[in-house]
């Protein structure tokens, strides 16, 4: 992967799109997220890493309220996440999410998977939604599979469809929850390539992943989490070459060999 | 695979003769060990005793169109009981000269059911066809306009009554059951408790009790002079009963759904109603087709219990024929005939469900 610097217009704009302030979350008695403070700027790309159970997936799942936080504030695109289900639905439509296990709808064709959101949430006319969907399928290089069902595709293809499904909602932010962890090794690259393309277009991205190559070449900022806290955050270069905390050093030595 | 070139094998190697063909099948399935061999021989011996005797009784020595008296001396089956009484068995006390009306209504109903089998026909026009069909069926049964003589619903009976109770019972119980299942899975406490209480109460009571209550207890609560049609009351009891069972079957399907499906739907911004209708139910209901159809089949057969509130369904009209001294001796023939009708209806449902399962199979 090249070391080219992204264009200036692809740099973070300084304008906050996600603000998390003093946020805490518990699963029962277990304090899974502790005092999280994080501001994400428009067009910023953040990679979140850390050992399993450190709370990184839970953190991004709080951003579209698949998990509820119990203290602190989360503001996405100017809307605060509260119990108001209308607000939550509004935010979910603006925030795309890609899951570890793809979670495509197995009873619908690929094309119907993509148009479901636009037609029912955005009220886009069917024909327009389908044209849009085909364009996104082209983009993830899978247009020829539009009439098939998810069960007929490989894992890598399914994950690319899942990315296209999120993009069809024209989101402002994309959340990726370990998008390549469930894939066979030879399929990881095709999914990462799609994500890199997306980065080049200036999408705001939060990616939970263990793909350190991806972090180095794409991220503006790398977050390291452990025991429900953000332990360290820095630019990729600083993060990998000059980690500050012992815990980070240990983690890096374990995954980078 | 550096350098190693795996060539496909050219010659076709056939499996050994003893493992294919009829002989191979018999060896593998009927005589594969001494116990199975003994079982096979025993079964063959038993069949050889029963089948020829039954065929002689049912087809060779049997009477088909004779009078009841002629039957008495014969050795074989007296199928004559069916043609001689067919109109009472099928139509019950419906006025004799108007019996073409329920016949047309039934043909219309069965025609619509068969047409609806094909999912390609599921368009808006089909809804209109059903709407029009139901109105026509109702008019045919009730009469009172267009020169048709009015027929009180107390005179309805036989097969039309059975079909009415089962088709509409099932058609109404299914969606009600789905709603109850969703209610039971709901996060809203009040709705959840209400649904649990309803389901558990209905399931804890035999259908006969519900039918008795609908016909005896329920009218006590009505103001004087107000009556609710007895067929309608039975129909409601059947719907309430079946819905509770369907609800539990559907709940099983809902529990089988992966959490990721809810999350994917929600993360697109779909609301609860859309998530259920577009994502969860289409999958959950498909998974539970086999147990659902079992419930519907047993509900269809349970409609015969309405005899206890003095409704003359197909089984009761048949029994009434048997109280005639001329035909009293031929209950086997009459019951076999009724059994075949019930079997036909149930087999239609189970074969359709298998077809639907195959059509909806998306490899998940």
* Number of DSSP strand runs of chain B: 0
Oligomer: heterodimer
Instruction: Kindly state the number of beta strands of chain A.
Output: 10
- Tell me what the CATH architecture of the domain at 166-360 in chain B is: Orthogonal Bundle
Account of the 3D structure:
The complex is a heterodimer of chains A (257) and B (364). Chain A is 37% helix and 25% strand. Chain A has helices spanning 56-63, 85-94, 110-120, 126-139, 155-167, 185-200, 212-218, 236-241, 246-256, and strands at residues 16-27, 30-41, 45-49, 71-76, 79-80, 95-98, 173-177, 204-208, 221-226, 229-234. Mean pLDDT of chain A is 90; it is low at 1-9. Among the domains of chain B are: 95-150; 166-360, MetI-like (MetI-like fold), CATH 1.10.3720. The model of chain B has no long low-confidence stretch (mean pLDDT 85). The A-B interface holds A 64, 66, 85, 89-90, 92-93, 95-97, 99, 101, 103-107, 116-117, 120-121, 149-152, 165-166, 169 and B 258, 260-261, 263-271, 274, 278-279, 282-283, 286, 360, 362-364.
What attributes does this structure have?
heterodimer; A: 257 residues; alpha/beta; six-stranded mixed β-sheet; four-stranded antiparallel β-sheet; 9 helices; globular; disordered N terminus; B: 364 residues; mainly alpha; MetI-like fold; 68% helix
Can I get a quick summary?
The complex is a heterodimer of chains A (257) and B (364). Chain A has helices at 56-63, 85-94, 110-120, 126-139, 155-167, 185-200, 212-218, 236-241, 246-256; strands at residues 16-27, 30-41, 45-49, 71-76, 79-80, 95-98, 173-177, 204-208, 221-226, 229-234.
Secondary structure elements and pairings:
The complex is a heterodimer of chains A (257) and B (364).
Chain A lengths: L15 E12 L2 E12 L3 E5 L6 H8 L7 E6 L2 E2 L4 H10 E4 L11 H11 L5 H14 L15 H13 L5 E5 L7 H16 L3 E5 L3 H7 L2 E6 L2 E6 L1 H6 L4 H11 L1
Parallel strand pairs in A: 3-8, 3-9, 6-7, 7-8
Antiparallel strand pairs in A: 1-2, 1-4, 4-5, 9-10
Helix pairs in contact in A: 3-4, 3-5, 4-5, 5-6
Chain B lengths: L20 H9 L4 H27 L7 H5 L8 H11 L8 H18 L6 H19 L15 H27 L4 H15 L3 H14 L9 H26 L3 H9 L4 H16 L1 H14 L11 H9 L8 H29 L5
């Amino acid at each position: 992967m090249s070391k080219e610097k992204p264009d200036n217009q692809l740099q973070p704009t300084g304008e906050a799109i996600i603000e998390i302030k003093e946020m805490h979350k518990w699963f029962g008695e277990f304090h899974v997220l502790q005092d999280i403070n994080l501001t994400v700027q428009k067009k910023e790309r953040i990679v979140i890493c850390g050992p399993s159970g450190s709370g990184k997936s839970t953190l991004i799942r709080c951003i579209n309220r698949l998990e509820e936080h119990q203290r602190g504030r989360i503001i996405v695109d100017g809307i605060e996440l509260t119990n108001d289900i209308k607000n939550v639905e509004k935010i979910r439509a603006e925030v795309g999410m890609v899951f570890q296990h793809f979670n495509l709808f197995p009873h619908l064709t690929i094309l119907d998977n993509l148009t479901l959101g636009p037609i029912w949430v955005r009220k886009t006319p069917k024909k327009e939604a389908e044209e849009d969907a085909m364009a996104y399928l082209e983009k993830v290089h899978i247009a020829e599979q539009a009439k098939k069902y998810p069960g007929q595709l490989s894992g890598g293809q399914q994950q690319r469809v899942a990315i296209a499904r999120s993009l069809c909602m024209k989101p402002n932010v994309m959340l990726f929850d370990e998008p390549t962890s469930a894939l066979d090794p030879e399929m990881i690259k095709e999914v990462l390539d799609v994500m890199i393309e997306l980065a080049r277009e200036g999408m705001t991205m939060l990616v939970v992943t263990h793909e350190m190559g991806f972090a180095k070449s794409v991220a503006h900022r790398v977050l390291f989490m452990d025991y429900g806290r953000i332990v360290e955050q820095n630019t990729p270069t600083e993060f990998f070459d000059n980690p500050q905390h012992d815990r980070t050093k240990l983690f890096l030595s374990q995954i980078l060999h | 695979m550096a350098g190693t070139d795996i060539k496909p094998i050219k010659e076709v190697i056939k499996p050994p003769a003893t493992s294919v063909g009829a002989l191979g099948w018999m060896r593998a399935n009927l005589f594969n060990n001494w116990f199975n061999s003994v079982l096979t021989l025993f079964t063959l011996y038993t069949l050889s005793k029963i089948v020829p005797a039954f065929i002689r009784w049912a087809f060779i020595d049997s009477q088909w169109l004779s009078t009841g008296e002629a039957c008495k001396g014969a050795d074989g089956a007296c199928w004559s009981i069916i043609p001689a009484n067919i109109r009472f068995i099928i139509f019950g006390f419906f006025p004799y000269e108007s019996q073409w009306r329920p016949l047309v209504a039934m043909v219309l109903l069965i025609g619509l059911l068969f047409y609806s089998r094909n999912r390609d026909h599921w368009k808006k026009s089909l809804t209109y066809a059903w709407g029009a069909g139901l109105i026509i069926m109702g008019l045919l049964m009730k009469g009172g306009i267009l020169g048709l003589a009015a027929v009180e619903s107390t005179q309805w009976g036989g097969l039309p009554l059975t079909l009415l109770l089962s088709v509409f019972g099932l058609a109404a119980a299914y969606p009600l059951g789905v709603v109850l299942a969703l209610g039971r899975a709901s996060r809203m406490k009040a709705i959840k408790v209400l649904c649990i209480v309803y389901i558990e109460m209905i399931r804890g009571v035999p259908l006969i009790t519900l039918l008795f209550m609908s016909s005896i207890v329920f009218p006590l609560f009505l103001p004087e002079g107000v009556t609710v049609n007895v067929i309608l009351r039975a129909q409601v009891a059947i719907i309430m009963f079946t819905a509770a069972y369907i609800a539990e079957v559907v709940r099983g399907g809902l529990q089988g759904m992966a959490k990721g499906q809810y999350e994917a739907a929600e993360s697109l911004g779909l609301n609860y109603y859309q998530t259920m209708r577009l994502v969860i139910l289409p999958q959950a209901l498909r998974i539970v087709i086999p147990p659902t159809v079992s419930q519907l089949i047993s509900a269809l057969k349970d409609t015969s219990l309405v005899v206890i509130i003095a409704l003359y369904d197909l089984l009761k009209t048949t029994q009434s024929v048997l109280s005639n001294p001329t035909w009293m001796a031929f209950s086997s023939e009459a019951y076999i005939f009724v059994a075949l009708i019930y079997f036909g209806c149930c087999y239609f449902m189970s074969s359709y469900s298998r077809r639907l399962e195959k059509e909806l199979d998306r490899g998940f």
